[in-house]
Specification:
Blueprint (H helix, E strand, L loop, with lengths): L2 H20 L10 H12 L9 E6 L6 E6 L40 E4 L4 E4 L2 E2 H7 L2 H10 L5 H13 L5 H8 L7 H15 L5 H4 L7 H27 L12 H10 L10 H13 L7 H10 L5 H12 L6 H13 L5 H9 L19
Antiparallel strand pairs: 1-2, 3-4, 4-5
Helix pairs in contact: 1-11, 2-3, 3-11, 5-9, 6-7, 6-9, 7-9, 7-13, 9-10, 10-11, 12-13
Length: about 375
C-alpha cells in the first residue's frame, strides 16, 4: 500500500473521532441497517489471502534422511511434525526455539485480523473504521463473542443482561476501600477481579466440575457478569485513588455513560454525563475491544488451560496488561507528556533522549504485532 493510502486511512480514523466530538449531543449511537451494509460491502471488497496449501520437504544433513510435511492453506506447519526428525533412539525429535512467539501461532482464530504494515484492523471481518463509526461498544462485544452483529431484539436483551450484572458484592467494595489510598488502580483492579471468584463459586470448575465451561449457558452468564462488573470495579479503583467512596451504577444509562457517571457524579443521581465524552469513550472501548494474541491474552489462556475460574484467569490478564511493555505504556506516555509540559519544551526533550539524558521516549518504536492466524 502506498504511503498516501496509509495516511488516508489514518486520517479517516481520526475523522471518526472528530465527528463524535463535534456531533450533536442528542445524536443516537446506533448501528443502522445502512451501516451494516457498508461494513459488509467493505468486507467483500478485500481480496482473500492466497491459498498457501502444499508441502514442505526437509533434508536432515545430519542423517541424510528426507522428510515431507503438509503446509496448511494459511501457510502454517505443525510444530509437532518436526518431532519426527531425529538422529537416533535417544533423540526425542527436533524442537522449535521461539522466545516471545515471534513466529509461532499457538491458536487459530477468526476473531481478529490485523496488518500493521497496511493499516488494516478487522473484527470478524468488519473494518474497524465502520464499527467505530456506526456501532456501540456492546454491539461490538456481541460481535466478537458470537461472530455476528446483534439484531435489535438481541441487542436489547444483551444490554439488559449486562446492566443487570453491573452491581458488585459489597465485599468487593470493602476490599477496594481497604487498599492504601494511593494504591495504583490497576493493582486494585487485579485484586478485586481475583476476589470475584470467592463470591461466585458457581463459576469455579474446581468446585463445580471440570466440565463446567462446556455449558453454553454458564459461559454466557460469565461473559455478561464480567462485562457488567468490570466498569464498576474500575470506577471504584479510581475513586479510591481520588479519596472518594464508590458510586453505585445506574442501569438507565448506556455502558459508557454509566462508567462516566460512576467516575464523576459524586453520588448525584441526577447527574448526566457529557454525551460527546461518552461517545468518544465508546469508540475507545471499541478500538481496544480485541487485543489478539498479546501478552495479556496469552496469560489468560495459559491460566485458563489449568481449569481455574474465569475471574482468576482475567486477573492474571489484567496483571499482564499492567506491565510497562504492554498496557502500562499508555500511562508512561501520559506521564511523559506531563513532564514535557508544553509544546516549546518538545525539542529539548527529544535532544535529551538522543543524548541519553532521559531514559526513554514512550510511544515510538513500538513492537509491531504480528497478524494472528
Amino acid at each position: 500500500m502506498a504511503n498516501s493510502d496509509f495516511s488516508t486511512r489514518a486520517l479517516s480514523r481520526l475523522a471518526v473521532l472528530a465527528t463524535h466530538l463535534s456531533s450533536d449531543d442528542d445524536q443516537s449511537f446506533n448501528f443502522s441497517e445502512k451501516n451494516q451494509q457498508n461494513c459488509l460491502s467493505a468486507q467483500s471488497s478485500i481480496a482473500p489471502p492466497p491459498n498457501l496449501k502444499g508441502s514442505l520437504t526437509i533434508i536432515d544433513e545430519r542423517t541424510g534422511k528426507k522428510y515431507q510435511f503438509p503446509v496448511s492453506e494459511d501457510g502454517t506447519l505443525k510444530a509437532t511434525d518436526l518431532k519426527k526428525i531425529t538422529t537416533g533412539k535417544n533423540d526425542k525429535g527436533l524442537k522449535l526455539y521461539d522466545p516471545g512467539y515471534l513466529n509461532t501461532a499457538p491458536v487459530r482464530s477468526r476473531i481478529c485480523y490485523i496488518d500493521g504494515d497496511e493499516g488494516i484492523l478487522r473484527y470478524r471481518g468488519y473494518p474497524i473504521e465502520e464499527l467505530a463509526e456506526g456501532s456501540s461498544f456492546l454491539e461490538v462485544a456481541y460481535l466478537l463473542m458470537y461472530g455476528n452483529l446483534p439484531s435489535k431484539s438481541q441487542l436489547a436483551g444483551w444490554e439488559f443482561a449486562v446492566s443487570q450484572h453491573s452491581a458488585v458484592p459489597q465485599g468487593i467494595l470493602d476490599i477496594i476501600q481497604s487498599m492504601p489510598h494511593d494504591a495504583h488502580p490497576m493493582g486494585v483492579l487485579v485484586s478485586a477481579m481475583s476476589a470475584l471468584s470467592i463470591f461466585h463459586p458457581d463459576a469455579n470448575p474446581a468446585l463445580r466440575g471440570q466440565d463446567l465451561y462446556k455449558s453454553k449457558q454458564v459461559r454466557d452468564k460469565q461473559i455478561v457478569r464480567i462485562l457488567g462488573k468490570a466498569p464498576t470495579i474500575a470506577a471504584a479503583a479510581y475513586l479510591r485513588l481520588a479519596g472518594r467512596p464508590p458510586v453505585l451504577p445506574s442501569n438507565s444509562l448506556s455502558y459508557s455513560e454509566n462508567f462516566l457517571y460512576m467516575l464523576d457524579s459524586m453520588g448525584d443521581k441526577s447527574y448526566k454525563p457529557n454525551p460527546r465524552l461518552a461517545r468518544v469513550l465508546d469508540v475507545l472501548f471499541i478500538l481496544h475491544a480485541e487485543h489478539e494474541m498479546t501478552c495479556s491474552t496469552a496469560a489468560a489462556r495459559h491460566l485458563a488451560s489449568s481449569g481455574i475460574d474465569v475471574y482468576t484467569a482475567l486477573a492474571g490478564a489484567v496483571g499482564a496488561l499492567y506491565g510497562p511493555l504492554h498496557g502500562g505504556a499508555n500511562e508512561a506516555v501520559l506521564k511523559m507528556l506531563s513532564e514535557i509540559g508544553s509544546v516549546e519544551n518538545i525539542p529539548d526533550f527529544i535532544e535529551g533522549v538522543k543524548n541519553k539524558f532521559f531514559h526513554t521516549y514512550y510511544g515510538c518504536g513500538y513492537l509491531t504485532r504480528l497478524t494472528q492466524l
